[in-house]
Amino acid sequence: MDQGVIHSLKCHYPKQLILRILECYDKNKDCDISLLDAVVLLEKTWRLVTESTIRNCFSGVGHKKTQQTEDDNLPPLQMTRKARSECFFAK
C-alpha cells in the first residue's frame, strides 16, 4: 500500500480517537476502548481517506498494456481445461 494512504490513516486515526475520548468525557463516562471500538474508529478513519489519495497510490505502479491472446476470449471452463492440459496446475 502506498505511503500516502498509510500516512493519511495515521493522521486521521488519532483525531478520531481523541474525539471518542472527548465524547466519553462530555458524558462523564469511562472511556474503555475495546477491539471492536478500535475497528469502528479505523473504519471511520478509512472513510476520511480521499479518493485522490487512493488513486495516487496507483500512479507509480506503471500498468503495462498487454496484447490480447486468443485464450483471453475462452469461457472460464474451457480456459481451465486448457490450463490443465498444458500442465499449468500441479496435480
From TrEMBL:
InterPro entries: DDE_SF_endonuclease_dom (IPR004875). Pfam families: DDE_1. Residues 1-58 form the DDE-1 domain. GO terms for molecular function: nucleic acid binding. This is DDE-1 domain-containing protein. It comes from Araneus ventricosus (Orbweaver spider). The lineage of its organism: Eukaryota, Metazoa, Ecdysozoa, Arthropoda, Chelicerata.
